[in-house]
Specification:
Elements: H1 3-9, E1 15-19, H2 24-28, H3 31-40, E2 45-51, E3 66-70, H4 79-94, E4 100-103, H5 108-116, E5 121-125, H6 133-138, E6 141-143, H7 153-158, H8 178-191, E7 198-201, H9 213-223, E8 230-232, H10 238-249, E9 256-258, H11 265-273, E10 277-281, H12 284-291, E11 296-300, H13 305-308, E12 315-319, H14 346-354
Parallel strand pairs: 1-2, 1-4, 2-3, 4-5, 5-6, 7-8, 7-10, 8-9, 10-11, 11-12
Length: about 350
């Protein structure tokens, strides 16, 4: 361990910045990094830099002191104002005088920010696509990615601690505010829904991850016989709402409700946390259910299970590859209308769900 790292490890009230610029699910799966830091250094100030739209995934975590956001809407302000916003953020971060920066991202922007902070210890990943002098100069140490292809995303993130040689915490945490549950509870009351209930999220922003609407409707229709209220959720996107409408049109009307596009991420987390069962495809809500320890039936297609299976899930993963051939995940056109989950039989989902409805 280098002298600079040794001095940081022994400093109890250090200032730390964690950088991750990715999608919502990625942010949730990096929460063990924050928990590791808080357990290791209870007195530290821990800040996060992320894309603004993903803030809700981490905003209620008690381990975080402050969240800085890069708003992708800045680009719409014009070049001068956009650059002014970026420069203001850089100065804010530099003025924090961080002792340690952990850069979990692979973008050049994240490397530049890391370097600009001036922190004495700046750890990033030695990504194969970022080999070279500039990337190396932005960091004081690079953690190896040699084993990443064998690791879950949670484990990949935690490997950033290799140069620090500290024990890690692997639990994924999803937190939400009391007001989020109050708002979600009001929506349930407005629908006349009482617990226990089932949450089903059939949609993803990538439709190749979705199951056929008619098969989903068949499964729901059978589960309605169990007597539990069923709540369908989705993102606000028009195509997702249309998918929900088609599913509803093919189910009996009794005992099924829609909150599609009506929930914030934290409200959705609160609903999932209080649910008897969550059923969903490979998407952010699935990872929320796993983090909240809500029983979960997760439907997977050609995503890389090694990387993206629900971490520490209570429940079952139903993989389409067990029922038919799937394409290489790296070869998929993410804008395709192909439904790779269609190989999954309805009975497999019904059977898995019934185990948690007794």
């Amino acid at each position: 361990m280098s002298t600079s790292i040794s001095s940081i490890v022994g400093k109890p009230n250090k200032r730390i910045l964690v950088i991750k610029l990715r999608h919502h699910g990625d942010m949730l799966l990096m929460s063990p990094v924050l928990e590791t830091l808080r357990v290791q250094w209870p007195q530290a100030t821990i800040d996060v830099l992320l894309y603004e739209e993903t803030r809700d995934m981490l905003s209620a975590l008690p381990s975080i002191n402050h969240i800085y956001g890069i708003d992708r809407k800045w680009k719409k302000l014009g070049t001068r104002q956009h650059l002014a916003k970026e420069w203001q953020l850089l100065k804010q971060l530099r003025n924090q005088h961080y002792d340690l920066v952990l850069n979990l991202a692979d973008q050049w922007r994240s490397a530049v920010v890391t370097r600009f902070t001036g922190a004495p210890v700046r750890i990033g990943f030695g990504f194969n696509k970022r080999k070279g002098h500039v990337w190396s100069c932005c960091h004081t140490q690079l953690a190896s990615v040699a084993e990443h292809q064998k690791m879950h995303t949670v484990e990949q993130n935690l490997s950033i601690f290799t140069p620090l040689a500290i024990p890690t915490v692997s639990d994924v945490k999803m937190a939400y505010s009391p007001t989020a549950w109050q708002a979600a509870e009001e929506k349930l009351k407005a629908l006349g829904v009482l617990a226990p209930y089932i949450i089903i999220q059939p949609t993803s922003r990538w439709f190749f991850k979705c199951w056929n609407e008619k098969k989903m409707a068949q499964a729901i229709s059978e589960l309605q016989k169990q007597g539990f209220p069923i709540i369908l959720t989705s993102g606000p996107d028009k195509k997702e709402r249309q998918m929900i409408a088609e599913i509803l049109a093919n189910c009996p009307a009794e005992g099924i409700y829609s909150l599609a596009g009506e929930l914030t991420l934290q409200q959705l987390a609160a609903l999932i946390d209080h649910a008897k069962l969550f059923i969903g495809v490979d998407s952010v809500p699935m990872h929320m259910a796993a983090a909240l320890h809500t029983p979960c039936v997760a439907l997977f297609g050609p995503s890389k299970l090694q990387f993206w299976r629900p971490w520490q899930v209570t429940g079952e993963i139903i993989w389409a590859g067990d029922y038919g051939s799937l394409p290489d995940p790296d070869a998929i056109d993410t804008h395709t209308n192909e439904r790779y989950l269609d190989a999954i039989p309805v009975e497999a989902v019904i059977s898995a769900a019934r185990k948690y409805l007794k």
